[in-house]
Specification:
Length: about 300
Amino acid sequence: MTLQQLRYVVTIAEIGTISKAAEELFVSQPSLTKALKELEKEMQITIFDRTNKGIHVSREGEIFLGYARQVLEQAALIEEKYKHKSGGKQEFCISTQHYSFAVNAFVDLIKEYGSENYDFSLRETQTYEIIDDVARMKSEIGILYLNEFNASVLEKIMKANDLKFTELFVARPHIFICDKNPLAQKDQVTMEDLKDYPYLSFEQGEHNSFYYSEEMFSTEVRSKNIRVRDRATLFNLLIGLNGYTISSGVIDKELNGENIIAVPLAEEGEMHIGYVTHKKTKPSRLGAIYLEALKRHAQ
């Protein structure tokens, strides 16, 4: 196995076809195909599934590519340090539920990294995808919460995928509402107070389940429900419809606007918010920088 072979398979995975990857790498398609087959034979795995419609990364290939990217990053760092030249474009990805502190930490990472050559991804996505992204090593870090209701299910899934959950902080349940909402003047609200207002939550797609819900008290029966995919839409609806969502109470006015506020929810419960990593890997340099920033913003 060589660094060149690892670069080849990572490029194929990113571009999606061997022919276009060969053009990108300035090698012939037969040479690239041969290098791929030799690597798969040596490692005794199938990195790409071949079909009539092209190639797709296999399940075991996703895991292999996660390791390959880490090796290439370390090689780039060695070149940068000892050859006094740029080690190439750095790649880094995290997957997270919709938390402003995760975004702020991402901003800090980019500022601290300080390179002009990088390719970073911040995926605000569904709970199942967060776990799957880290399991497949598409993302180095995932951010989500556990509580008494979902912990047994999510911990079982994480254990089956060799994942580790590390707690950052514990939050009491709050609601996010517009500052013009009649409930904004209350010191705390109850479920009874909320019954006439539209309830906003993040949809969980084909893996929709109460256990995957990003909001606490997901089993509560409500007469007005709206599900959205992104944070901007949710906040616009909070303002336009006097709706509410249930959250950790951690809010950033610069990101979310001055007119969105958090009000404590009277119901009992705790959100154990933390990050998910793969047990078989160690944090990369970029991952370590991000985790330090995450801890600062989660305080």
